[in-house]
Amino acid sequence: xxxxxxxxxxxxxxxxxxxxxxxxxxxxxxxxxxxxxxxxxxxxxxxxxxxxxxxxxxxxxxxxxxxxxxxxxxxxxxxxxxxxxxxxxxxxxxxxxxxxxxxxxxxxxxxxxxxxxxxxxxxxxxxxxxxxxxxxxxxxxxxxxxxxxxxxxxxxxxxxxxxxxxxxxxxxxxxxxxxxxxxxxxxxxxxxxxxxxxxxxxxxxxxxxxxxxxxxxxxxxxxxxxxxxxxxxxxxxxxxxxxxxxxxxxxxxxxxxxxxxxxxxxxxxxxxxxxxxxxxxxxxxxxxxxxxxxxxxxxxxxxxxxxxxxxxxxxxxxxxxxxxxxxxxxxxxxxxxxxxxxxxxxxxxxxxxxxxxxxxxxxxxxxxxxxxxxxxxxxxxxxxxxxxxxxxxxxxxxxxxxxxxxxxxxxxxxxxxxxxxxxxxxxxxxxxxxxxxxxxxxxxxxxxxxxxxxxxxxxxxxxxxxxxxxxxxxxxxxxxxxxxxxxxxxxxxxxxxxxxxxxxxxx
Length: 507
Description:
By secondary structure, the protein is mainly alpha-helical. The protein has one domain. Helix content is about 75%, strand content about 0%. It has helices spanning about 20-50, 50-90, 90-125, 130-145, 150-165, 170-190, 205-215, 220-245, 260-295, 300-340, 340-370, 370-375, 380-395, 400-415, 415-445, 445-470, 480-485. The two termini are about 35 Å apart.
């Protein structure tokens, strides 16, 4: 079966085979997500060549980036859900209002982060448990990269606006260009005579490339990696905004002065009602990561560094699943707005099946071959031993992680973001932190590793029950809507239910 990578029209989410449409939405998002993830992954790879203290320092700082992402994710998820629903309801003017107001909010919130981030970097990283050289490197990295918070937030919202309309191809192209730019900038900005790539591995010509950058680079160290990411994000947001304003886009962003105050506050409230629970979930995960780093620092400070490396490695597997979930949200939201409830169910089921198979395969590979991949990041024997232990213990839970991510996306698309948050907080906070604390006392660092699959299974079990409940509590649509869904046709706007017939919190 061929899956063309052309831009989908919004109405195509409401007709045709569910699996085919979902995959056509997801493939460009997967490619774009993998490329976008390499911004920080390449930073981590190159900075790890500077030494263990540098990579451990930015591992502590990664919790700050989690918080920044969490704040932006509220608008990103809210606009993706609400814009898709408005299109499903055949309300393009309402969709345009959602997009314009979300972009304005993202700009304002991002500017606040760009100002506060550099001012608070050092005390925050110290509070997370870093000290000495690790604190210095972590604070330098975070103080520089948070200057571009506004680019990150506006870029997240712009990408969500395109994705909600079925356009995932533009994000893929922009991410490809941004990734190439970041790779080149990282090499030249990080290394130099005072920051040589002494730990670069002797494989695939990486040692030779590192020597070239060391000789010709600008010698900025960890700040160079942050600067490269900042510059790349600026390029990406300019290109995404240009795409949103182009004549080829169905719902285009207009001038901010056209926004009416009453409409603004009402729409922003609807966006945050949908998005804030997701932010709470991500903040919970960030707090959990900080707590886990602190627990590890009480037993072996090097363990926090290897955990940061392992998480970056895992993100390459998780990103395709997150990207698939990013296709599930607008797919479910659009069909919910159009009254095509069976398509919502099928999209969630097929998403879980695809994600589970992909993550299960990754888990099998990483269980068998953990060391060769870890050696790209570090040659330290102690870090390698701990990393292999972490990956082999955690790989058993990857299948359930994949399914859990899609279940959460399905709940968000159905307008049940609070239920999704409950499941995620159960994993990240209510189970993981106590389990890590108790098991670390009994088993040391290995106990912390074991807490992860335990919390993942708890989250999967709860998310499955919540999804069962949510699907049973969607009001029945008209017989015409059910028949149209069975034949994959789009329901005419006149046949859609009135907003008062929607579940609470979905109008």
